[in-house]
Amino acid sequence: MVDWVDYKRIASELQVKEEDLKAFIKKGENLPPTQEIEDNLSTNPPVKPVFSENDVTIYHDNFITSSALEHETIDLIVTSPPYNLGIDYSNHDDTDEYDDYLWFTEQWLTKAYQVSRSDGRLCMNIPLDKNKGGQQSVGADITKIAKDVGWQYHSTIIWNEGNISRRTAWGSWMSASAPYVIAPVEIIVVMYKENWKKTSGSRENDITRDEFMAWTNGVWTFNGESKKRIGHPAPFPRELPKRCIKLFSFVGATVLDPFLGSGTTLIEAWDNKRVGIGFDLSEEYCQLAEKRLTDTWLKPKLI
Ligand SMILES: C[S@@+](CC[C@H](N)C(=O)[O-])C[C@H]1O[C@@H](n2cnc3c(N)ncnc32)[C@H](O)[C@@H]1O
Fold it and tell me: CA distances (Å), 185 to each of 121, 159, 162, 219, in order?
């Protein structure tokens, strides 16, 4: 099966607009000459992991185009994709037009769907909305795209990260002319591929009674992570993947983070006896993730 299409190149070869090509393919219509498109559909050669130890594997690769993973092999995806808020990542342009960002979203969600098992789950940490550079319902738009590519909706967790700095943007101060309402929260949208009930895997649980009681309340309150401390522009705190992993997967499950960044998901996968796989476009972040992991193995409590 073809995972990724080089639309720009094919559109230019067929001398059609890229948007028209995407629309044709999306609708399942044949764009003449069909054979020519099929001949041009490309998959990338498999890459070797840059790190693989203790059931943790890191790929320095574009998750969307990568052929490193077999289809139907992942139990749980825990991830925070780029938010398109202009963050200065080393190898990713975070300043797309909103429509292009949604197109990127559709591509990675499709790939994530393909590599997930039928009882595979997805925990997606995304913004509720966007207030700078035009208001957008990012959380709702991404959730709709996920449903369109086949993911089924389960629930939404509100992550109250206690971020008060955003409260400086008031819009019109004490005036109804154009006030800004900003929720200092992010969301974790929980979805699944075909069956919510997990039937595959070890069936061994490691969640405590208190954790289960607390985490099944869908408002999670804990602080965000310091960019400076971690050395990455947008890390999430370990608490986030830890809760998702223990609540939504059995011991020994295969956990994927397609946007690995500093490796937080893999640290928690390892710490909780899961198999962890991560991808990042940036060699620098892959190396950072590797360092955090190996440091964790040496001094677990400090990282
Ligand atoms: C929000 S950060 C993830 C941070 C991570 N949760 C952590 O705790 O450090 C998103 C990451 O996605 C990476 N990225 C962007 N596009 C990618 C792609 N197509 N494939 C793989 N990684 C990508 C960026 O380099 C960035 O490190």
Answer: 22, 6, 8, 10
* pLDDT tens-digit map of 70-96: 999 999 999 999 999 888 898 888 888
Atom of ligand 1 nearest to the CA of 108: 19
Distance 55 CA to ligand 1 centre (A): 21
Q: 280 C-alpha vs ligand 1 centroid, how far in Å?
A: 6
Per-residue pLDDT of 13-53, as tens digits, reads 676 777 777 776 665 544 444 444 444 445 566 789 999 99
Which CA distances in Å does 111 have to 71, 86, 114, 172?
Answer: 9, 24, 5, 42
Asked if the model's pLDDT at residue 111 lies above 80, the reply is yes
pLDDT given for residue 35 in this prediction: 45
Q: What CATH number does the domain located at 44-298 have?
A: 3.40.50.150
Q: Which residues fall within 8 angstroms of residue 208, CB to CB, at 6 or more apart?
A: none
The domain ranges of the chain are 1-43, 44-298
Kindly list the protein residues whose Cβ atom lies closer than 6 A to any atom of ligand 1. Answer: 62-64, 80, 82, 89, 91-92, 232, 234-236, 258-259, 261-262, 264, 279-282, 285
